[in-house]
Amino acid sequence: MKRIVAGIDINADVNCVWDLLTRFEDWPAWGTTVTAVMSPRSRVAPGATGRVRTILGFWLPFEITDVVDGTSWHWKVAGVPATGHIIRRVGPGITRVEFTVPWPAAPYVVALRTSLRRLKRLAERTPQGAGE
């Protein structure tokens, strides 16, 4: 299925950005539509499950469906394929982050762009992020 991509370059080490993207406790800090996460795991891993509380206040189940360590992860929310999260180092201390969404959810790209900007601010002010 064709996917829509939103991306941003972040002045932070790729490992710092990966940590922020994969630790469940950090999701509400950068994710515009997630206000809380409950899971028996603490971070993204193949087959990890849990629930996310949306900005509307209701909880939805999730499953991490695919992980390439240090590079990408995808998930399903309420059984529906959701966003993909892809990172790569593009230079010393610069990380490219791309969020993808299936084309039928193209309007959601507005939320993805906001999340990317929030992730950028968070990563660039994290001590292990900037300048490495």
Across the major sheet, the strand order is 1-7-6-5-4-3-2
| Helix and strand sequence | EHHEEEEEEH
Distance between the termini: 37 Å
Largest sheet: 7 strands, antiparallel
Helix share, percent: 10-25%
Count the strands? 7
Q: Report strand %.
A: 35-45%
Overall geometry comes to globular
Layout of secondary structure:
Elements (H helix, E strand, L loop, with lengths): L2 E8 L3 H9 L4 H4 L3 E5 L10 E6 L4 E10 L3 E6 L2 E12 L2 E9 L6 H17 L7
Antiparallel strand pairs: 1-7, 2-3, 3-4, 4-5, 5-6, 6-7
Q: Please, could you describe this protein's structure?
A:
This protein has 132 residues and is an alpha+beta fold. The protein is 23% helix and 42% strand. The protein has 3 helices and 7 strands; from the N terminus they run E-H-H-E-E-E-E-E-E-H. It has helices at 14-22, 27-30, 109-125; strands at residues 3-10, 34-38, 49-54, 59-68, 72-77, 80-91, 94-102. A 7-stranded antiparallel β-sheet has the order 1-7-6-5-4-3-2. It is globular and about 40 Å long.
